[in-house]
Amino acid sequence: MTSKPSPAPTTREKRTPAEQPPVAKPPCDIHASAIIAEKAQITGTHPVEIAEDVVVHPYAKIRAENGSVSIGKGSMIWERAVVGCAEGSYACSVEIGMDVSIETGAIIEGAAIGDGTIVDVNAVVERGAVVGKWCRVAALERVKAGEKLEDFTVVFGDGRRRTDETIRNHEDVREARRDAQVKTVAVMRGLVADAKGKWL
Amino acid sequence: MSRPTPATRRSAKSEYIETDTGNKISRRSIIEGKQNIMLGGKSVVMAGAMLRGDLVRKPEKMADGEKEGPVTAIHVGRASIISTNCTIRPPHRISRGRMVFYPMRIGDNVFIGPGTYVSSAVISSNVHIGTNCVLSAFSVIRDNCKILPNTVVPSHMTIPPGSVVGGRPARITGEVGEGWGQGGGGEGEEYVEGGDLRALVRSIR
C-alpha cells in the first residue's frame, strides 16, 4: 500500500458501525402500516416501494442493486426469502402484486408476480420471468428466465404444470384466500416487531 | 492490516454453547423468541439453523389478575439434531375466525438434515429427515420414518410409522424394515439413522 492509511480509529469509533445505517440504503417508500422486521435487509441504490400491510420477516432480503423493487398491498415476505437481484450487470426490476406470499428461502428475480400468487419454500423465479395472478410455484420448483406463467397456473412435481380450476372458477375461493392473507397480516402485527424507521 | 478479523476472535470461543441439560446450540444459529422454545436435553442446533419461536399463539384476553402462562412454540425432545441452515417455523391456520399459530412438537432422536424446512405439526421419535426437504404446514411424521433428501411433504399429510418417503410431492416408497435404528449409540460406535443419536450428539463440539 502506497497511500498512507488513515489514523487508527479510536475505540469509540470502532463500536459505532453496528449502530450506523447500512452503507447502501436505497430510497425507500414504505407505507406506515407495513411491518419491516428489525433483521430484514434492504440493500441497493434503486427505489424500493412497499405498500400498506406488507410484512417483511426477519432475515428476508430485498435487493435493489440492479433495479427497483415494489411490493403490493398485503403481501408477505417470509424469512430468508430474497426479492430482487444483486449479482450480474443486467437490469432487473421486480414488481410483486397484492396478497402475494413469498415463502421461506424463495428467490424472486422475475419481472412480475401477479396478485394472490404463492411462491413456496425455496422455489426460484428466475430473472425476467412473469408469473400471473393466483399462481402457485410449489416448493423447490423453478420458473425459468423469461418464462411467462398464465393466471391460475400451478408449477409442481419437478416442473409439471396445470391450471388450478378451483380457484379460477370460484370467486369465493379467491375471496377466502384473500381473507386468510388479511388475517395472517393481522396476527403478525402482534408477533413481529416493526423497525421500518431504520429505512425511512 | 493488523486489525484482528472476527473469525480469529470467534475461534477463541467454542462453536457451541452447552446448556445445563446438555443441549448444544451453535453461536451462529438464528433463534427468534427463545423464551418459547423448549429443548429436551442433549439436542443440537447447528450453525445457520433458524427457529421461529416468536410465532406463537397469543393467549386470548384473560380475566383480571390472571397471569400469562408460558407458551411453547417449538418443543424438541432429547438427542435430536437440527442441522445447518434448517428453518423451523410453527404452522398457522384459521381457527374460529382468526389466524392462529400452532405449537410444534419434535420427538427424541430426530435427525433433521441440512437446509430442510420444517413446519410440521408433529414429528415423532426416531425419524431421519434428509437434506433440503420441505415439510409443509401441519404434516404429521410418525415414529421410525425415513424421509429421503429433496422430498416435499405436502401440507396436512400424515406419514404412518415406519415409512420411507420420497419425491415431489412426497409418496410412501417403502418401509424401513426390521432392525431400523437398531445398534449404534454405544460408546465408540457409529450412529445409526433412526437410532439413538446420543453418541453423535456427544461427538459434536
UniProtKB/TrEMBL annotation, chain A:
Broad class of the protein's primary localization: cytoplasm
One GO CC annotation: dynactin complex
Molecular-function annotations in GO: dynein complex binding
Lineage: Eukaryota, Fungi, Dikarya, Ascomycota, Pezizomycotina
Ranges for region Disordered: 1-26
Family (UniProt): Belongs to the dynactin subunits 5/6 family. Dynactin subunit 6 subfamily.
Gene3D superfamilies: Hexapeptide repeat proteins
Organism this protein belongs to: Baudoinia panamericana (strain UAMH 10762)
Family annotation (InterPro entries): DCTN6, Trimer_LpxA-like_sf
One of the protein's GO biological processes: mitotic spindle organization
Cellular compartments annotated: Cytoplasm, Cytoskeleton
Keyword Cytoplasm: yes
Function recorded in the entry: Part of the dynactin complex that activates the molecular motor dynein for ultra-processive transport along microtubules.
Protein keywords: Cytoplasm, Cytoskeleton
Name of the protein this chain belongs to: Dynactin subunit 6
Automatic annotation (TrEMBL), chain B:
Major localization class: cytoplasm
Top-level division of the source organism's lineage: Eukaryota
Annotated Pfam families: DCTN5
Cited SUPFAM superfamilies: Trimeric LpxA-like enzymes
Any single GO CC term annotated in Swiss-Prot or TrEMBL for this entry: dynactin complex
Compartmental location: Cytoplasm, Cytoskeleton
Entry keywords, A to Z: Cytoplasm, Cytoskeleton
Family stated for the protein in its record: Belongs to the dynactin subunits 5/6 family. Dynactin subunit 5 subfamily.
PANTHER family given in the database record: DYNACTIN SUBUNIT 5
Official protein name in the record: Dynactin subunit 5
Taxonomic placement: Eukaryota, Fungi, Dikarya, Ascomycota, Pezizomycotina
